[in-house]
Design brief:
- This protein has 401 residues and is mainly beta.
- The chain folds into three domains: 1-198, Baseplate protein-like domains (Phage tail protein beta-alpha-beta fold, 3-Layer(bab) Sandwich); 202-222 and 341-380, no CATH class; 227-338, no CATH class.
- It contains six helices and 28 strands.
- The strands form seven sheets. Strands 2, 3, 4, 5, 6, 7, 8, 14, 26, 27 and 28 form an eleven-stranded mixed sheet that branches.
- Strand 12 and strand 13 (191-197) form a beta hairpin.
- Helix 3 (124-135) packs antiparallel against helix 4 (166-175).
Length: 401
């Protein structure tokens, strides 16, 4: 595992001409070059996992060159995918996922903010570096590249009470700053590179009036909108607690206290609370504050319900609530952010080349004019579909707000 400070410029597609597909093993050895291609389809994503699908003539020499090698990376220009499946019938079909899929093959146990830093909170780059350090060994041929973008230094609390894939944690963390992440393979050295990055805001307007878009359509949906949410935290006994010796060691005001309780085994005072043997020390508030309760209050208490709000929560009749599936405040905040007013302008683009005029995560404006009303939205490129066929190639970006 390595850390680099040089920012790597990534032009992921230089031109739409059909380039050869090169197949490497994980050590960077070139195994085959495919010229006889029927179709190739890529979908590359911002802060998500992209896909590859290639169809090839069975009689092509490269089929025997790759043989049954299980560890394959396909490279077309600067598009890359790890081959995850193959199918052989009348033709050879190869399926793959972009290299950041490797993060799905690394697990992360439950953690709290205090595991990452001694400060009150973490930043997005700080947390991603910590995850990277914990899921890759020092001997792994993986490089952490310096972040690319303008990331906030304002700390926030972030934790997970259950085990997660490293991909899920990095994706959720990056989403807080509308950022993305990527991994790419360097065949020359056999090294893998990880980078956290942000897209740029571009002075591009897509519309039929500008003749760079067609088949435009506007839709709106507020059925899932909510700015307040309720989530249920499962209440769990953590055993006995001695307030005199503070064993096990507890602290007041930690978010991870929420949903836990202990039975008091000795009279004493702790956290300015008078405790008697047989009582219970319970945290039923997301602020992590302990309180003393009697046994009858604990009985039948399976879940504690807590309420959270967005920063811009509405009031009165405009306050809409949602019952969330998450069981922690951090995960509930992530879920609540998705409960928004959906305003969508869909379109197809023309005369706009990925890698030359825009990239993943970049922001641009889209417009739809109909019935004397003009709708304008700022959109972010969340994915790009790229395809090559014999005598035909094309691409279309996919947008999100």
């Amino acid at each position: 595992m390595y850390f680099h400070t040089q920012i790597s410029g990534r032009n992921l597609l230089g031109g739409m001409g059909m380039e050869d597909l090169r197949f490497y093993n994980f050590e960077g050895q070139l195994l085959a070059i495919a010229h006889d291609v029927v179709t190739v389809n890529w979908r590359i994503c911002y802060n998500d996992i992209g896909t590859f699908e290639g169809h090839f003539n069975l009689h092509s020499p490269f089929v025997s060159d790759i043989g049954t090698e299980p560890w394959l990376i396909v490279v077309q220009g600067e598009l890359q995918a790890i081959i995850t499946g193959r199918q052989m019938g009348d033709e050879l079909v190869l399926y793959g996922k972009t290299p950041n899929w490797l993060l799905c093959k690394r697990g992360l146990p439950p953690f709290v903010t205090g595991d990452v830093t001694e400060e009150s909170g973490v930043t997005v780059p700080q947390l991603c570096r910590w995850v990277f350090h914990n899921v890759f060994d020092e001997s792994d041929p993986v490089v952490y590249e310096t972040e690319e973008g303008d990331f906030s230094q304002a700390p926030f609390a972030f934790w997970r009470n259950t085990a997660h894939q490293a991909f899920e944690v990095i994706r959720d963390c990056a989403e807080r700053e509308n950022a993305g992440h990527r991994i790419w393979f360097e065949p020359k050295t056999g090294m893998w590179h990880f980078q956290l990055y942000q897209g740029k805001e571009l002075p591009i307007v897509l519309s039929e009036d500008h003749r760079n878009a067609y088949e435009t359509e506007y839709t709106e949906d507020i059925s899932e909108l909510a700015d307040t949410g309720w989530y249920g935290k499962e209440v769990a006994s953590r055993g006995n607690y001695n307030p005199v010796s503070n064993q096990p060691p507890l602290q007041q005001g930690l978010p991870e206290n929420f949903g836990k309780y202990y039975q008091v085994t000795q009279d004493g005072t702790r956290f300015d609370l008078e405790m008697n043997t047989g009582q219970y020390l319970l945290c039923d508030s997301p602020d992590g504050m302990w309180r003393i309760v009697e046994g009858e209050e604990i009985q039948g208490m399976d879940y504690i319900w807590a309420r959270i709000e967005k920063d811009s929560a509405s009031r009165g009749i405009y306050r809409w609530e949602s019952i969330l599936s998450a069981q922690t405040e951090s995960e509930a905040e992530t879920e609540l952010r998705e409960k928004k007013r959906e305003q969508e302008i869909t379109l197809l683009t023309r005369n706009l080349e990925y890698g030359k005029e825009y990239g993943l995560g970049d922001m641009m404006r889209v417009q739809k004019t109909a019935g004397g009303v003009r709708f304008t939205q700022k959109k972010q490129v969340k994915a790009v579909a790229i395809w090559y066929e014999q005598g035909n190639s094309g691409q279309q970006p996919e947008f999100t707000e």
